[in-house]
């Protein structure tokens, strides 16, 4: 299991219609891509960083994760929405630590 | 529900006994503090950042989170282990985004 997440801020005014549309479209488009499990939209609330939102999702294995990355809907999302509308971001991928 | 997480790297050599001890002690000490739910130790595997590990935990509300922060075992952990042994870190707190 891989937990893929991205913490980000948008260029849009906070609480704006374009912000809401971005987050709604992300839910609709990304959660429908095969292999994506437990897609979550999150609000980042710590004052110890300056990101506003997060997405997280799970993949059963690296193959499912690669298929998501290579999916045309994901590629179009990154090109047409993510790059133009996102101000800054950091990607984080987790696997369980067995100890 | 608040999802509190921290992504971090240690000063210790990778795979060393002191690294393992830090991660084992974190599990033992932090997961036992009242209010901590679903404590997880994670290995950070994305090449798009240079952190090595993560911890995540959940709190039912801000009051439970504050009680954790103020708990003597947490304060001692930060002072005696986190500050001396952690190289770099970023704290992230999430709440659900309702849309």
How would you describe this protein?
- Two copies of one chain form a homodimer.
- By secondary structure, chain A is α+β, with helices and mostly antiparallel strands.
- Chain A has a four-stranded antiparallel sheet.
- The longest helix of chain A has 14 residues.
- The two termini of chain A are 16 Å apart.
- Chains A and B meet through strand 1, helix 1, strand 2 and strand 4 of A and strand 1, helix 1, strand 2 and strand 4 of B.
Quaternary form: homodimer
- The secondary-structure class of chain A comes to alpha+beta
Question: How many strand units of chain A?
Answer: 4
Flag low-confidence runs of chain A.
none
Number of helices of chain A: 3
Fold blueprint:
2 copies of one chain form a homodimer.
Chain A lengths: L1 E9 L6 H14 L6 E8 L8 E7 L2 H9 L1 H14 E11 L3
Antiparallel strand pairs in A: 1-3, 1-4, 2-3
What is this entry, summarized?
The structure is a homodimer of 99-residue chains. The first copy, chain A, is of the alpha+beta class and 99 residues long.
What keywords describe this structure?
globular; 35% strand; 99 residues; 3 helices; 4-stranded antiparallel β-sheet; alpha+beta; 37% helix; homodimer
């Amino acid at each position: 299991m891989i937990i893929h997440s991205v913490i980000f801020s948008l260029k849009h005014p906070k609480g704006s219609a374009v912000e809401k549309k971005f987050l709604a479209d992300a839910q609709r488009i990304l959660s429908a891509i095969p292999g994506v499990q437990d897609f979550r939209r999150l609000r980042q609330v710590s004052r110890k960083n300056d990101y506003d939102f997060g997405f997280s999702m799970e993949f059963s294995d690296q193959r499912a994760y690669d298929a998501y990355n290579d999916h045309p809907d994901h590629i179009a999302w990154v090109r047409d929405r993510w790059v133009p509308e996102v101000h800054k971001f950091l990607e984080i991928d987790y696997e369980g630590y067995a100890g």
